[in-house]
Amino acid sequence: MIGGGGTGAATAWDLSRRGFRVTVLERGELTSGTTGRHHGQLHSGARYALADRTIARECMVETLILRRIAADCMEYNQGLFIALDEAEAALAAEFVDACRGAGIGAVEIPVRRALAMEGAVNPLVLKAVLVPDGTIDAYRLPMRFFASAAALGADIRTFTEVVGIDRSRGAVTTVRAVDHRSGKPVSVSADAVVNAAGPWADRVARLAGAEVALTAAAGTMVAVEGRMTDMVVSRLRRPGDGDILVPQRKLSIIGSTQRIVADRDGLAPTEGEIAFLRSAADNLVPGFSARPVRAAWTAARPLAGRSSDDGRSISRDFVLIDHGKKDGVRGLFTMLGGKATTLRAMAETASDAVDGYFGTGTRCGTATAELAPYADYWRQR
Ligand SMILES: Cc1cc2nc3c(=O)[nH]c(=O)nc-3n(C[C@H](O)[C@H](O)[C@H](O)COP(=O)(O)OP(=O)(O)OC[C@H]3O[C@@H](n4cnc5c(N)ncnc54)[C@H](O)[C@@H]3O)c2cc1C
Q: CATH assignment of 6-35+139-213+315-375?
């Protein structure tokens, strides 16, 4: 397994449960990639219901599963989509229909009720739709999967960067890495390799002579002091910039933006993005920009496919690439795209592919299996 984000965590757990011997190689600390920097929304899928129906449906299914298997890693406070102009108000019925078509229990509620539920929301709201959104702890959720995998014997190595993937007669045999703590080379024999390197997945695939079409779309978020709402508050429109406000502990976080980047390392917000986001947040909850800024940061979305626009035209759905079929590199699989919310489903798909490769006939049981507490990861070490 290459990559210690949410996808790598959930896949390490799934494969370990199926009886495979798993080694995870992560070049930094666990969750130091996109997983540790996302917005923290437990997506019901409502955001994608109008234009990206498959991922919308998957988000809803996975929200329900995560509420069962990792309830302590989330706040299930629901979400409000609010219409602030006539065009948004006119979209309400179509939006509710689209949500229901994706299995998401959205319901339009009277404005008075929405304001009673969330007093900080813009009082000029014209229409409001209640959806089953929530928030996730970006760190604890994947750490519960890592803790569970480690308890079954998975060997999880941080600060170990993969620099080569060797093959023999078209099949992967060995992963070569550098241990950044000791500076020494590391070599791991592997009958199969799952590339869960997020926005770096194309570079990792190239180490084995395989290709991955990926768009790295950077997004910025701004957190201010104070929890202005308990619910996730979104603009009732097609996904765009600065249209979601997420509460996290005692902070309120507005996001995000989107721009395609060639370099996925060392991403930083621009002054323009921060100013735009603070002003956009004021439309959702007036007074946001008057609060002290705690942090602003940027992360890259690993979108599956290539785009000539800002990446919005690419689906948020996830894709499993079998490089044996695509590039003649047998035993190499890339899992790409998706959301933090769908980590378990992505892992199931990747693990099914590995299982199919070996013909072992194992089955996924992660939708119901209890996960270890996240702190067990540290106790086991
Ligand atoms: C701005 C933004 C906001 C988002 N908000 C949300 C949200 O609110 N809710 C939601 O559900 N999703 C959200 N997402 C999506 C979500 O963050 C990602 O889908 C998810 O975190 C991807 O996880 P991953 O494990 O696939 O990738 P990553 O977390 O990036 O993990 C890949 C790992 O691979 C490692 N790696 C790379 N190269 C190597 C190498 N050569 N050797 C070893 N390790 C390597 C990296 O260090 C990294 O840790 C958001 C994304 C962005 C960008």
A: 3.50.50.60
Supply the DSSP symbol for 205: H
Element (H, E) at 9: helix 6-17
**Closest ligand 1 atom to the C-alpha of 219?**
1
CA of 122 to the centre of ligand 1 (A): 32
**From CA 261, how far away is CA 217, in angstroms rounded?**
6
Which ligand 1 atom is nearest residue 160's CA?
Answer: 43
Which token pair is 340? 């933090």
**How far does residue 360's CA lie from ligand 1's centre (Å)?**
29
Topology of the domain comprising 39-137+215-304: D-Amino Acid Oxidase; Chain A, domain 2 (3.30.9)
Of the candidates 184, 182, 163, the one whose C-alpha atom is nearest the C-alpha of residue 174 is 163
Give the Å distance between the CA of 345 and the centre of ligand 1: 15
Q: Where are the domains of the chain?
A: 6-35+139-213+315-375, 39-137+215-304
Residue-wise pLDDT tens digits, 222-270:
999 999 999 999 999 999 999 999 999 999 999 999 999 999 999 999 9
Omega before 187 within 30 of 0, i.e. cis: no
pLDDT digits (tens, 9 = 90+) for 34-61: 999 999 999 999 999 999 999 999 999 9
CA 162 to ligand 1: nearest atom:
42
Measured distance CA(3)–CA(201) in Å, rounded: 9
